[in-house]
Amino acid sequence: MAHDPANDGLPAQEEAALERRGSLLQTVRAVGWAFLGVRKNADYQRDMGRLNPLHVVLVALIAVGLFVGGLVSLVHWIV
To answer: Do 20 and 51 meet the contact criterion of CB atoms below 8 Å apart?
Structure first.
């Protein structure tokens, strides 16, 4: 872990929180791979350290809503 002079005086927890910056695309990609159930352990471990758990939960809830909405729409269209 490289020392950042801009973070001098911050407790270790706050410094770790500053390093936990995963983009929205990375979060969506991680949730997508979790939906498929195919994930390398190294990628999983990297995401666990990088992504914000709250963002992962929110993206997963949105993805579940879209999935269920798509299935309901498909059934409604077929029937």
So the answer is: yes
Residues spanned by the domain of 54: 22-78
Q: What is the pTM of this model?
A: 0.66
Q: Which of 26-30, 50-54, 60-64 has the highest mean pLDDT?
A: 60-64
User: Please, what's the b/e burial string for 42-68 (b: 16 or more CB within 10 A of its CB; e: otherwise)?
Assistant: eeeeebeeebeeebbeebbeeeeeeee
pLDDT band at 8 (very low <50, low <70, confident <90, very high): low
Does residue 13 form part of some domain?
Answer: no
Structure-token match 């390398």, residue found: 40
